[in-house]
Design brief:
By secondary structure, the protein is α/β, with parallel strands linked by helices. Helix content is about 25%, strand content about 25%.
């Protein structure tokens, strides 16, 4: 039987009330987001859209020691669990949950970093579990709505970072371009050396630059975590990785 929680070095994420559990996508999003230039600032504002368990927001709070992190979640039970995970963490004073739709979120704050692990299963069969459907499908948040919300909430020099299946990247990029956000960085995530990448972590901003491309190999060889992956997660995962 799977655990009701996932323990990291500095915090624990309970996910028994959430449809979507702690997973690699959220970890990659939190750790691959480019924070250069803002990591030492004491006024950084971070927004996590669709926080679920609160995992991505917690990683952001650990990486950015002075940042104030706001997490939006539409599903009430998930929002409650994220709040509980925040309160139990050492970053509780810098984390808050907003329960509702990002499309309806109104604030004077402009965010330096916006993160999202979005619902992306456009056109696939829906789950009989309504909460899981809400978490995994673009029924409650389309790419166009996501891009529009991010553009509205992003600071002038802010970054919008998303983890998404490779097949959906073009659609999201088209929507972001529509709202003045340009693709700057792309990390292709390969499961192992024998498989093509299926996930990408992409970064957008208002500033148009030449695209910076990189790749991350999860397993090398298959079944064993790569040195690159171990280095990425070493300050977060407990215990050795095979």
């Amino acid at each position: 039987m799977a655990n009701d929680y996932f323990a990291f070095k500095q915090f624990t994420v309970y996910h028994d009330k959430c449809a979507m559990k702690v997973g690699t996508d959220g970890v990659l999003l939190g750790l691959l987001a480019n924070i250069s230039g803002i990591e030492q600032r004491d006024d950084v504002k971070v927004l996590d859209i669709g926080t679920g368990t609160g995992l991505v927001a917690l990683i952001a709070a650990q990486r950015l020691a002075h940042a104030e992190v706001t997490a939006i979640e539409i599903e009430p039970n998930s929002a409650m669990q994220a709040r509980e995970n925040f309160v139990a963490s050492p970053f509780a004073s810098r984390l808050k949950v907003v329960q509702g739709r990002v499309q309806d979120y109104s604030t004077d704050i402009k965010f330096d970093l916006i993160l999202c692990n979005p619902p992306f299963y456009n056109g696939t069969l829906t789950s009989p579990d309504d909460k899981r459907t809400l978490a995994r499908h673009a029924l409650s948040l389309t790419f166009d709505e996501l891009a529009h919300s991010a553009s509205s909430l992003l600071a002038e020099e802010g970054r919008f970072v998303v983890v998404i299946p490779s097949y959906a990247e073009g659609q999201l990029t088209d929507c972001c371009t529509k709202y003045g956000l340009h693709l700057n960085e792309e990390t292709k995530v390969y499961p192992n050396i024998n498989k093509e990448f299926k996930r990408v972590v992409v970064q957008y901003s208002r500033i148009k630059t030449e695209l910076t491309e990189s790749k991350l190999l999860i397993d090398d060889p298959p079944g064993y975590k790569s040195a690159q992956y171990k280095e990425l997660v070493k300050e977060y995962y407990i215990g050795p990785l095979k």
